[in-house]
Amino acid sequence: MSDQYRDDDYAGSYAEQPYDAYQDDYYAEDGGYPQEYAYDAPPVEPAAPVTPEPKIELVDQDGIRAFELATLGWLVGFVALLPFWGLLNDRGWTWWIWTCLAAFGIGAIGIELTRRRKARRLRAEGLA
User: Fold this and answer.
1) In this structure, what DSSP letter does residue 3 have?
2) Which residue, among 108, 103, 113, 106, has the nearest Cα to 62 in the 3D structure?
3) What is the DSSP string of 32-78?
4) Domain with 95 in it
5) pTM of the prediction?
6) CB of 119 within 8 A of CB of 128?
7) Count: domains in the chain
8) In Å, how far are 35, 41, 45, 117 from 38, measured between CA atoms?
9) How far apart are CA 100 and CA 71, in angstroms?
């Protein structure tokens, strides 16, 4: 360890200081503490009423719906940008259109892969 933070005056122990516990203390010869130091009992709160848990359906664990919605969103973006082809081409922004088209293609592949994974899982569990 480096000596960067070492205190040169520190010799390994501190000199003992005289301590008189009763000097200037609240103990008086005739009384005690000027106030009572006791803890009160904590307040008792009434029990909360028990409410039944709501029944919640599980989300799609396989992700097929998520892939379908995302892929549909990219398709909508592609179709929405097609009327602006000329404007996007003038400004050099046609990559937006190609990004939507590529994402739609990747999403379509993802849908197929998640469907295959679900079918493989169901076959392994003996449900299909």
Assistant:
1) S
2) 113
3) --SS---PPPPPPPPPPPP-PPPP-PPP-TT-HHHHHHHHHHHHHHH
4) 64-125
5) 0.53
6) yes
7) 1
8) 9, 10, 21, 67
9) 9
CA pair distance 65, 61, nearest whole angstrom: 9
Residue 9: per-residue pLDDT: 55
Within a domain: 26 = no
Q: What is the largest CA-CA distance in the chain?
A: 99
* pLDDT tens digits, one per residue of 68-80: 999 999 999 999 9
- Does residue 79 sit within a domain? yes
Assigned domain for 94 exists:
yes
Residue 54 lies in a domain: no
Give the span between the Cα atoms of 100 and 62, in whole angstroms.
Answer: 24
User: Smallest Cα–Cα separation from 103: which of 75, 128, 80, 124?
Assistant: 75
